[in-house]
């Protein structure tokens, strides 16, 4: 009879601490040991050490020694007998044995031997330059370098390379730097204000160390000018202040046809102001504002630019980089429409 059944058979109307002590005192040592071993292994509230009974009742023979245990296991394994194979090992080759194909030997008859012709003598006596020309004519590009190939096509003498020549790089052609822009800014401002008839194009590109105030003076001088038709001011460090002064001049000036302010520090708002000013007179044909320091204009600015271009019926070219295809397509369609209208107008004048 188990301890639990024995405890269940006791008729206890109300279990208290005293009754529980009496019940435990009535149990033997073996029954108490059995009661201690009844644990619930799935009870997560108990620590792992208390979810199962302790079964290590054997008395230890001595302290734990890892090296001694490993030595005992090794000796024990050597003393045990290996498993006997029920089938002895025999070397067998399964499947078909691979036999390589024998190459067909071709026999050459005496009648098939090539006969020497006059071309063999000509090719043997040809110089290396003549062989290079022949390879170029026949299209053997892999046998020639680019220098040899183009020299043969252009009928130029070849002084280097050849079939026996070693591969080497072509000599670097040193191109001299462009001469610096020597335009006198002060004199240009004076000529713009005096409306000089000879100043039809003003180029200030790449002039270094021009102050923002001086650039603003140049833009303000364009306001009342009626001669200059092209204004270039690329890579001069212009900012939104310069763009604002230029936009104020474009609102009044109807003579300018091309304006170039690329490679500066004009933001998207400055570009929008330039297009708004160009829409007032609608006389500007080309506006270049690409490669500014703030490269990403944003969707809002690009859509505003597309809207302004759509309202302009005279602008033919706009130099700018769009990130979003919607704005780019709208601007391209409008510029094509303006070019088509100009073509129809020119064709109408020619026919009349």
Helix and strand element order: HHHHHHHHEHEHEHEHEH
Strand content: under 5%
Strand order of the largest sheet: 1-2-3-4-5
Largest sheet: 5 strands, parallel
Summarize model confidence as the mean pLDDT: 82
Structural class: mainly alpha
Sum up the overall morphology in one term.
Answer: flat
Q: Any idea what the radius of gyration is?
A: 50 Å
* Helix segment tally: 13
Number of strands: 5
Low-confidence stretches: 1-13
Pfam families: Tropomodulin (PF03250)
Protein name: Tropomodulin-1-like
GO molecular function: tropomyosin binding
Subcellular location: Cytoplasm, Cytoskeleton
Q: Can you walk through the features of this model?
A:
- GO terms for molecular function: tropomyosin binding.
- 42% of the residues lie in helices and 4% in strands.
- It has helices at 3-9, 17-25, 29-36, 66-79, 118-125, 128-138, 146-153, 185-194, 212-221, 240-250, 268-281, 299-310, 325-351, and strands at 201-203, 230-232, 258-260, 286-288, 317-319.
- Strands 1-2-3-4-5 form a five-stranded parallel beta sheet, with no helix packed on it.
- Helix 11 packs parallel to helix 12.
């Amino acid at each position: 009879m188990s301890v639990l059944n024995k405890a269940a058979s006791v008729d206890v109307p109300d279990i208290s601490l005293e009754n529980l002590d009496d019940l435990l005192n009535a149990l033997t040592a073996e029954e108490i040991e059995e009661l201690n071993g009844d644990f619930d292994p799935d009870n997560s509230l108990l620590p792992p050490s208390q979810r199962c009974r302790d079964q290590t009742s054997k008395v230890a023979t001595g302290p734990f020694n890892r090296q001694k245990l490993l030595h005992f296991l090794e000796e024990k394994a050597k003393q045990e007998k290996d498993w006997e194979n029920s089938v002895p090992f025999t070397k067998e080759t399964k499947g078909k044995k691979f036999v390589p194909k024998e190459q067909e030997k071709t026999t050459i008859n005496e009648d098939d031997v090539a006969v020497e012709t006059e071309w063999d003598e000509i090719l043997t006596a040809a110089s290396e330059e003549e062989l290079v020309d022949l390879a170029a004519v026949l299209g053997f590009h892999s046998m020639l370098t680019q220098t040899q190939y183009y020299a043969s096509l252009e009928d130029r003498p070849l002084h280097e390379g050849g079939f026996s020549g070693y591969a080497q790089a072509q000599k670097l052609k040193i191109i001299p730097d462009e001469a610096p822009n020597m335009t006198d800014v002060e004199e240009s401002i004076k000529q713009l204000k005096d409306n000089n008839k000879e100043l039809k194009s003003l180029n200030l590109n790449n002039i270094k160390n021009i102050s923002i105030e001086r650039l603003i003076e140049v833009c303000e001088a364009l306001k009342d000018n009626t001669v200059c038709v092209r204004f270039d001011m690329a890579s001069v460090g212009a900012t939104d202040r310069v763009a604002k002064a230029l936009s104020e001049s474009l609102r009044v000036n109807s003579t300018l046809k091309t304006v170039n302010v690329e490679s500066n520090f004009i933001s998207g708002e400055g570009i929008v102001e330039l297009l708004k000013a160009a829409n007032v007179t609608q006389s500007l044909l080309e506006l270049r504002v690409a490669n500014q320091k703030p490269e990403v204009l944003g969707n809002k600015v690009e859509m505003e630019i597309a809207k302004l271009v759509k309202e302009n019926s005279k602008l033919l070219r706009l130099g700018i980089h769009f990130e979003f295809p919607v704005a780019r397509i709208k601007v391209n369609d409008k510029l094509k429409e303006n070019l088509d209208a100009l073509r129809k107008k020119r064709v109408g004048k020619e026919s009349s």
